[in-house]
Amino acid sequence: MLSGRVSRIDAIQNKSANEAALLTARNKLVKLNIALTKIDEPNFGICRKCSKPIAVPRLMFLPESTRCVNCAD
Ligand SMILES: [Zn+2]
Known about the structure:
This protein has one domain (2-61). Helices cover 59% and strands 0% of the residues. It has helices spanning 2-38, 56-61. It binds zinc ion.
């Protein structure tokens, strides 16, 4: 039956969408863990180039960043 086939395709597409979301979440978790290991460093969140604080959203997105958005390549 066509409808059964369509819902099966839907299920497969939902599965890959969920897996993609899971992968994104895992990547974020890994980055946050990296941030947690660095948070005790005195220069965490401080731009290595201009010594200004790095914006928090940038740190959340790229915890490994050592330069602010203005000094980033
Ligand atoms: Zn900077």
